[in-house]
Amino acid sequence: MPIEGLFDPTTFLLQKVLDLRVLRHNLIVSNIAHQDTPGYQSQDLYFEDALRAAVAFRNSRLMVQTHPQHLPVSSLDLDQAQVQLISTPSPSMGLDLNSVHIEREMAALAENTIQYQATAQILAKKFGLLKQAIREGGR
Q1: What is the pLDDT of residues 33-81, one digit of tens each?
Q2: Are 83 and 45 in contact (CB under 8 A)?
Q3: How far apart are CA 62 and CA 55, in angstroms?
Q4: Which of 21, 30, 35, 79 would be a feasible disulfide site paired with 100, CB 3.0-4.6 Å?
């Protein structure tokens, strides 16, 4: 059985979310590291709407291909989800034109960490259930 057959679309979605949370973490840490760099513009990664749209598109196209000449059935293609790298200007930008607002960055880092941990726990539970099913099936 190919590995894709073992996991449901939710597992792949959770994996993608973890990957994107790591990318966002790295951007936030970079922003914090450049808080004193003149002219540095803080950046953030926005992806929640893109993932929601990919899931909604998949759910709206749930159908079965009943004939080989019919159009192929769409799958959840998370790699096509368009993530946005955005500059985050600060209303209190100083004379050095640095837009890093350390309190905002620390709050974003804490929020992203909590969301990463929650996603990792959900994925661990799913793997635990799979592991239990394998053990139970072997009896």
Answers
A1: 999 999 999 999 988 888 887 777 666 655 555 656 554 544 556 666 7
A2: yes
A3: 11
A4: 35
Domain that holds residue 58: 3-137
Distances (CA, A) of 70 to 1, 42, 65, 73, 77: 25, 48, 6, 9, 19
Q: Whose CA is closest to 45, among 80, 79, 12, 21? A: 21
pLDDT of 20 reads: 93
Length of the chain counted residue by residue? 139
Instruction: Provide the domain count of the chain.
Output: 1
Q: What does pTM read for this prediction?
A: 0.76
Closest to 16 in 3D by CA, of 65, 78, 73, 100: 78
User: In angstroms, rounded to a whole number, what is the distance separating the alpha carbons of residues 79 and 81?
Assistant: 5
Of 44, 47, 45, give the one whose Cα is nearest residue 88: 44
